[in-house]
Amino acid sequence: MSDENGTPNPAAGPHPDPIRFFGTTWVDHSRGYLARRIGVATGSLAAAVVSCLVLRFAYQGLQIADVGGFVTLIMIVMFAVCSALAFRHTWDGFTKRPDPDRQASLRGLLAIGFVGSLLAYFFRALVEAPGEKLHREEYEEARTQYEKRTARRTGNPSKKRRRP
User: Fold this and answer.
1) Pick from 43, 81, 93, 161: CA 20 to 30 A from residue 126's CA?
2) Cα separation of 23 and 37, whole Å?
């Protein structure tokens, strides 16, 4: 409370969590929010393209080593499946908090499918800051809960009903 009258202190309420590369600009889309989104989308797409080039070099290395078609096929399928799973997992992580135990168990798969994670980050940055929807829902819920708590505490004590 900021004074004796019971008015709430605005700085005492919940604060928004920062998002990587965006800080708290996602709350009111200020201070270069759009430019940051464009930069994040461009950066993640560029990183995905470079990653695909690195994977191509690995593929060419397997061809030079002449390991056979079966091993090459397994490698291609592994990266494709892991990238698809990483894309889905990363995309779902933008709308709900991931389970830490599941996250730990999928760490290797997500590392192999890093191209899928980069592409999910790119596509999400075209719409909003990655994770903005989740952070906004949590922040709005925290603000609502805070306002309910302060509304119960504040008010004119002379207007309260007396218990008989």
Assistant:
1) 81
2) 12
